[in-house]
Amino acid sequence: MTDPVPDLPRPGPTRALFVLTILTGSFLLFLIQPMVARMALPRLGGAPAVWNSAMLVYQALLLGGYAYAHWLAHRRPRTQALVHLGLFAVAALWLPIGLSAMRLPSGAEPALWVPWLLGASIGPLFFAVSAQAPLMQRWYSAATGGRDPYALYAASNVGSFAGLLAYPLLVEPRLALAGQSWLWTGGYLFLVLLVAGCALLLPRSGPAAQHPPLTSAAPTRRRVWWWIALAFVPSALMIVTSSYLTTDIVAVPLLWVLPLGLYLLSFTVAFAARRGAARFLTQYAPVVVLVFGSIVVSGHHDYPVLNAVMALLLLFVISVALHSCMYAHRPAPERLTGFYLAMSFGGALGGVFAGLVAPVVFDWTYEYPLLILAAGVLAPQHFLVPITAQLWSGGPKRRRIVAAVMLAVTAAAVWFGLDPEATLAGGSRQGMVFVMLAVLGLFAIGVRPVFACIVAGSLFLFGVYDALRLSAIPGARTRSYFGVYTITDRPGARDLAHGTTLHGVQLLGSEARLRQPTTYYVPDSGVGLAMRALPSLYRHGARVGVVGLGTGTLACYAQPGQHWRFYEIDPAVVRIASGSGRFSFLSRCLPDADIKLGDARLSLSEEPSDELDLLVLDAFTSDAVPLHLMTREAFATYARVLAPDGLLLLHTSNRYIAMEQVVAATIAGTGWHAAALDFSPSEDAVEQDASASQWLVLGRGPSFERLVGTNAGWRELQVDPRLQPWTDDYASIVPVLRGITIDAD
């Protein structure tokens, strides 16, 4: 006598419910990440170690959630429902979301303290929600009699993408942090109801309601490591692409959303039931790797928008190809949770490699060409046209001869192209070599070892070789979690660049030239005028604080009797400015400089009141705005640290954000007076290597009026009455992006 077959729910409504549940869970998961990071900003500061630690917390919790889903999937369906709903009930004790009340101990190591703080604040909630995607797919298969659930993973990534875009574009501009917290709380309760509805569809009787049987063969260890490798490369490449775009191409705010969004969309394409787009992109992925990989790594920045598009397209196509390969080798639905666990583990490893390991091991972004090469090796390959298949046919001996000829031609082409005077875009020699290697690579697609060698040769020629040459020069390059700093010499000057952003210039030659302030800090700039006015404003004992050390240029305004202190977040910058011997502003002008390492706002909060007469904030030259330095609470800290007649100088040169209007809105009604000075270098300033700049001066006493009266260039701030003041509870750059008008009401 056979067991009765239970009545299964109709596939249509059931699928809709499970899709909505997965969408909601993934949406909340990617909404909480930037939300909690925003909450933590005033307390923890903006040090990269903080955000790298936060990334590890999210990756670890996601991996833990997938491991929990894998363990739970081997229980009876009804047991799964009870346990999972119980977990939701326990996690609800952490609602509404917010940071734990514990305070950061003085001198605490962020790599250890930040994970503890974030884990204690949102750990149970993140853990419970992160299990949604794999667990709901398993429930869907059980509720529908074994239907293939893998296509539902696409819904998970659509939800993640929506959450990722919703926070900076919709949630943050319109809600303060308290409102954001209650919005997420409402979404969480809605998710619990959806999960409960899915649980009611699980079978109560018959074989499907018993302990889930494992009828398919377990994946081999080699297959599991294959899944991990396929997940590792896109995850690491996504982080590397974000860094490449925001430091080496252009530091446009919110640009980091694009790589992560395309990474998530690649899952939607790769796991879709309709395979047309995935097959097309996978087939031509080797071509994209071969052509775009070399151009992107070449570092040619005359066309930044084109480079950014190619980098994003490269990431998307590689991600689709490798994730499609995972989909093609997916296990049976009963082993689904183990498959996603391996995927999550590979993604976490990729994040650790690109975010933590590579900046320590490499002095340049060598991980970028390495990951592109790994993608070329891992991506599925097939002969694109019949002629290439004919070329490689005819037996092993002929294949070896063709391979040897191709490799010899590749080596000769690389040697021929090693011309330091030529570039990929403009040099005729390297242009011919690029075409030659591209043609060779097209004929090698389908023969993985030969294709990999051609890609490696192309990457070496068009990027790695020049990077190695510069790495071989002692002191020419330094890397930290903030990025890559490069020191280069040109006739009469030495430059410090962070990615493609100039951070300082020192003139070479006579003692006077070596002490000459340059770029944004020349004598007629806003900060130059303030520095020259210090003796008349505060006599000879002025107390000066500078946020942002750079090359130490401002130190050459120091005069005997003054007391100076620099606040710098990056130890690498301190070594460059004071210990490398390449820049001598500090050693010549302020050899005993007081430098305080750490996030500036946290460091200033520890200073006594009335400690400074002049505070210079120079934290905006890279076009990346540290929001926590520009809130009303931050300005209150500056006011406390400054003497009643003290001055605050802000460097607000920025190509993408209207910082002047932000400051005007934030200080309105707080007692500050403000003025702006827009400096444009004249022909006389060419010898000073002057750069255009905008400086704001803020004050609350007579020194403000005296300084502003020294130069007719000072003007009132531009005010946008529609802008809300930035606070620790509310700050959004979307309404103040140049060229973008968004009503935040």
Helix and strand layout, with pairings?
Elements: H1 11-44, H2 48-72, H3 77-91, H4 110-130, H5 132-143, H6 152-174, H7 177-200, H8 221-249, H9 257-270, H10 276-283, H11 285-297, H12 304-328, H13 336-361, H14 367-378, H15 386-391, H16 396-417, H17 428-444, H18 448-471, E1 477-480, E2 483-490, E3 493-498, E4 501-507, H19 511-514, H20 526-538, E5 543-547, E6 563-568, H21 571-579, H22 585-589, E7 594-597, H23 600-605, E8 612-617, H24 632-641, E9 642-651, H25 659-667, E10 673-679, E11 693-699, H26 702-708
Parallel strand pairs: 5-6, 5-8, 6-7, 8-9
Antiparallel strand pairs: 1-2, 2-3, 3-4, 9-11, 10-11
Helix pairs in contact: 1-4, 1-5, 1-6, 1-7, 2-4, 2-13, 3-4, 3-7, 6-9, 8-9, 8-12, 8-13, 8-14, 9-12, 10-12, 11-12, 11-14, 11-18, 14-18, 16-17, 16-18, 17-18
Task: Provide an overview of this structure.
The chain has 745 residues and is of the alpha/beta class. Helices cover 55% and strands 9% of the residues. The chain contains 26 helices and 11 strands. A 7-stranded mixed beta sheet has the order 7-6-5-8-9-11-10, sandwiched between helices. The protein has a 4-stranded antiparallel beta sheet with strand order 1-2-3-4, with helices on both faces. A hairpin with a 2-residue loop joins strand 2 and strand 3. Helix 1 runs antiparallel to helix 5, helix 2 packs antiparallel against helix 13 and helix 16 packs antiparallel against helix 17. It is flat.
